[in-house]
Design brief:
This protein is mainly α. The chain has a domain of 95 residues. The protein is 63% helix and 5% strand. Strands 1-2 form a two-stranded antiparallel sheet. The protein has a two-stranded antiparallel ribbon with strand order 3-4. The longest helix has 30 residues. It is globular.
Length: 227
């Protein structure tokens, strides 16, 4: 029973790190930005929800939605103001080292803001599913919060896999992670990916999906426009 409890606890903890790993790896593969502040964003969201529920007596759903909106807005502003200027500005810098230090500094900044706003005491997260631990097959026990963590990890992982596998935006995201030579030899179509030769005439090539122009109006073949 003790070994089973350790296995379940390891699965719960591992699923949390797996979600963070997906965020870091996808972000780096698509945009070549190694974001070291992913965990700090999660920490800021957890402390924000705890503060709104425990101190300000907000309802838990409202606290979660408000915190998500604030953290998302902060991440968007940092991307537009700092990262975009660093990578696309007049003095644009290239390479992983530059973005590494930008996100490293962001991590320290979020830590400092969290200490000022919420202090350094340890707080228990608000319970989403009240009750005692659950028994699995009459032996090991798992906390109800652990069940929710595993369910969320499975849902997020499955949804992301479906997005990458079956949507045009997901295929474009996957193509951004390929090397330049691979991207030059493969074209994206709404029906799937397929290899295409650069020597083929334009009329025989599949329509390519532009990452910068995702609207359907811009995904037209040169042959169709000539008609």
């Amino acid at each position: 029973m003790k070994f089973g409890n350790l296995v379940l606890a390891g699965l719960v903890t591992g699923s949390i790190y797996a979600v963070f790993a997906v965020c870091v790896s996808v972000w780096y593969r698509v945009s070549n930005i190694l974001n070291l502040a992913v965990g700090d964003f999660a920490m800021l969201g957890a402390l924000g929800v705890d503060n709104l529920v425990r101190v300000r007596n907000w309802p838990l759903p409202a606290a979660i939605l408000t915190t998500l909106a604030v953290v998302a807005a902060f991440g968007y502003v940092y991307d537009r103001v700092v990262l975009r200027l660093a990578l696309d500005g007049r003095r644009a810098q290239e390479g992983i080292v530059v973005t590494f230090f930008f996100t490293f500094a962001l991590s320290f900044f979020i830590d400092g803001v969290a200490k000022v706003l919420f202090g350094t005491d340890v707080h228990a997260a608000p319970a989403l599913w009240n009750g005692s631990s659950l028994t699995v097959l009459g032996g090991p026990h798992i906390e109800r919060a652990g069940v929710l963590v595993l369910a969320c990890a499975l849902i997020i992982g499955s949804a992301f896999w479906l997005y990458i596998r079956y949507t045009l935006g997901g295929k474009a995201m996957e193509a951004c992670g390929r090397t330049r030579s691979e991207r030059a030899s493969r074209a994206l179509t709404p029906g799937g990916t397929g290899g295409s030769s650069s020597s083929a005439p334009p009329s025989s090539r599949p329509c390519s999906a532009s990452w910068n122009h995702p609207s359907p109006a811009t995904r037209t073949c040169p042959a169709r426009r000539s008609r």
